[in-house]
Design goal:
Layout lengths: L4 H10 L7 H8 L1 E9 L1 H13 L3 E4 L12 E8 H11 L6 H12 L5 E4 L2 E4 L4 E7 L14 H14 L3 E5 L12 H18 L4 E4 L3 H9 L4 E4 L9 H7 L3 E5 L17 H18 L7 E4 L8 H9 L12 E3 L4 H4 L10 H13 L4 E4 L2 H15 L1
Parallel strand pairs: 6-7, 6-13, 7-8, 8-9, 9-10, 10-11, 12-13
Antiparallel strand pairs: 1-3, 2-3, 4-5
Amino acid sequence: MVHSSETTRRELERIGVDPEAFELFVDKSIPMILKCEGLSCAQANVLKQTALLCGADVAVARSVYHTATRKKTCALVFANRREINRMVERLAVQPWMSAVREQLSAALDAGDAPMLRLGDATITFTRTYIMGVINITDDSFYQGSRYTAQDEILQVACEMETAGADFIDIGTESSRPGAKPTSVKADMKKLQRILPQISRSVKIPISIDTYKSEIASYALDNGATIINDISGLRFDRRMGEILARKNAAVVIMHMQGTPRTMQRHPSYHDLMGEIHDFFRKTIETICDKGVSRDRIVIDPGLGFGKRLEDNYEIINRLEELTVFGRPLLVGHSRKSFIGKPFGLDPGDRLEGTLGVQSLLIKNGANIIRVHDVKEAKKVAQLIDRITR
């Protein structure tokens, strides 16, 4: 069995196929299962007929065949890339199917390396990037990431850059389960003490982990270029305005509830469907506020309002989120879903963290947010060499 497009190309070359036919066969070799959402029954029926004409198939609910129903429905498309291309071409002549066509087109584009604009620079994610975590708090869940002394914080930032970090993420407030919110005044005092020094001492981009627009505004004026908002811009309505005005990059994360409440019996009817819907709506909303789409990163929020099995499902199905064409950041480092099955404290979860990191990279993660930069960098370089 041939398992990748690169292997397919090598085998085509080995048996002497005309190089001009390579892409045709590669497209045929990539099977895809796509979920199209928000369809009317008429759209679902047309989509199925179009798929059959192109050699593919579509699974729809039984109720779709009863045209009296007005409920929106979903459909699963079973096709290869060539068949999806043909479907997109056929649907182009039917304007009322444009939303369906856009979903199919987005899936075709998802295989391209995403890009992120940071200031005037552009990053193309042809490898895995490492984000080092510095928590300038005394109550983060992992003791090894807590730094409060000014000289120590600066030293750690420089050590992370030397170890191969591509970004540094500074947190002024713990977001561990059950954590109480802190005041803007307290966060500002911490940040003012160290951010100007760090921004002068390191050359890599600095991210600030905050959902408060006042903190974001100060940070972006003093050396930060990314705001990492665990609320996905839900907690502070002014955040979108600040990001747009300052042309900042932003990480939007999915979370159920707040840090204080998120682990009180979280539940999902359709985990990946709800996460997908959250990102679709949030990206659309913040772009309407003036934030450029190419400055957005998405994070599924492992451990934030998720049950143990939810985290594992997200890891296994992470590739589904590449459909947005935005860089995927994942923060899994030393979290409870790694240690809980074995009764391990955060300090004993490094091996599990590195093992999960390998799966995340293979399944589509572009940025890995970690406490242990040196170890994570080595793993990323090895997995990139094997898989990319």
